[in-house]
Design goal:
By secondary structure, this protein is α/β, with parallel strands linked by helices. It has ten helices and nine strands. A six-stranded parallel β-sheet has the order 1-9-8-7-5-6. A three-stranded parallel β-sheet has the order 3-2-4, sandwiched between helices. α2 links the parallel β2 and β3. The N and C termini lie far apart (43 Å).
Length: 285
Amino acid sequence: MNDGPSARLMSGTDLAREIVDRAAARAAEVAKQAGRCPSLATVLVGENPASVTYVRMKRRRCQQAGIDSRHVLLPASTTTPALVSTITELSADPTVHGILLQHPVPAHIDERAAFEAIAADKDVDGVTMHSFAAMAFGSPGFSSCTPGAIMRLLDAYQVELTGKHAVVIGRSPILGRPVGMLLLARDATVTFCHSRTTDLPAITRGADIVVAAVGKPEFVRGDWLSPGAVVIDAGYNEGNIGDVAYAEARTRAALLTPVPGGVGPMTIALLLEQTVDAACRQAGL
């Protein structure tokens, strides 16, 4: 890819709409054959404004796609055992096909314990260790939604992955690590970077593909990028700002995801698609 005055933007909005439209058609077919619409339970602990907004958006998208949305709101004082019990009950409920625990949860809760209470066949957000192992080994299972969305965007824009050097900035268990596994499975050479990485700019300058998933606004600067790089900004910070310095990156990258309108809508689309997948599997369709 050649360096140019302005990167081509990898819009997720139109692609996400196509995915949701297909999911809606499949949801209608599930309802017709199984006598029950696909159902997603969203669990929210406390009322963090950003989390409330995210959950409301996801529930609205569910309704648009013909997916039933069951919302479980728990007080911020909820204990880990109480949250685990709630999720265990949802896992055992045959009318629930997918479970989403909105994260982050309050600091006093063991988030990993809560995630692991989600039944593997209902882990449509791809947050359990079972789902991570499935991604890592290429076994059937659900992808973490944001990593899965990134891969779909790369494919839609025909980004060649075989033999390319991909640098992932961030090592969270539901974003950085799984996206690295998915890239590795596609024969990319993957370097994981994090807060203790020495000389991070030098490493990213050698990358063909950069995935920014660090959670810090405009952390990745334009001069960290090699001309013609593919840059995936998976960050979302207050003020609709990503993890990449957008204006700077646009003069260096060949392809760049905008924030908003890039990875975000795709993440929700994958969540809905995987909820319908779960409903199909559980109904034997």
